[in-house]
Design brief:
With 209 residues, the protein is mainly beta. The protein contains no helices and 14 strands. Helix content is 0%, strand content 51%. Strand 11 and strand 12 form a beta hairpin. The relative contact order is 0.19.
């Protein structure tokens, strides 16, 4: 028996993209790899918490709008499938949790996607559908009236969540840093991919010009 999970992409545009005219709306009919360039996934037996299948990061090379994951030679039952996309390092398993560092080296890093769900795999229901969700938002700032003498802008955003697990629970505090040196004009847009503010904290931004 082969079980198939079909993956789509839920968050192709930000929910408030139309509120920011400076940002272009992404075409939502592009191939899957236009949004998510690589995948890694874990299939875990819900009852025993045993890892049934662990697939490390691999690149998506086809032009399909959906991706399929096939599972064969496994018994029917309930499993937890966790899929991470746009990652640059392995997923870490600690007991029942799978965690990923969203801001390695205090950088914004990739536009990481995630989906995790409990699947009941039975011969009479071999096909399942899931949609990948973004783990980060986009902080977009417009700097105005910049003097011509400004050649570099350094940003520091404090109290940002560093890690995420398969349950979309964020943890550990980090500071994200980004520098801009190109195309600095009197009016300059700045953007940075960020995970949410750590629960119980308040994020602040520091600029150095």
């Amino acid at each position: 028996q082969t079980y198939t999970v079909t993956l789509g992409v839920k968050d192709k545009n930000y929910s408030n993209i139309h509120d920011i005219p400076e940002l272009a709306v992404t075409n939502e009919q592009l191939p899957f790899k236009s949004y998510i360039s690589n995948l890694s996934y874990h299939l875990i037996d819900l009852e025993t918490q045993t890892s049934i299948q662990v697939v490390p990061q691999y690149s998506i090379t086809n032009n399909d709008t959906l991706q399929t994951l096939d599972f064969s030679e496994i018994k029917s039952g309930r499993y937890i499938l966790s899929v991470f996309g746009n990652i640059t390092q392995p997923i870490i398993r600690n007991n029942a949790l799978l965690t990923y560092n969203l801001h390695q080296r205090e950088e914004e890093n990739q536009d990481t996607y995630l989906i995790a769900d409990t699947l009941t795999l039975l011969p009479e229901s071999p096909n399942h559908n899931l949609e990948m969700k973004r783990t980060k938002g986009l902080l977009y700032i417009i700097m105005e009236n910049l003097p011509d003498s400004i050649t570099r802008i350094d940003e520091q955003i404090f109290a940002i969540s560093q890690d995420i697990d398969q349950n979309f629970t964020y943890s550990h505090e980090t500071t994200v840093k980004k520098s801009s040196t190109e195309n600095l004009q009197p009016t300059t847009p700045l953007s940075v991919l960020l995970s949410p503010t750590l629960p119980g904290k308040q994020s602040t931004i520091r600029f150095s010009l």
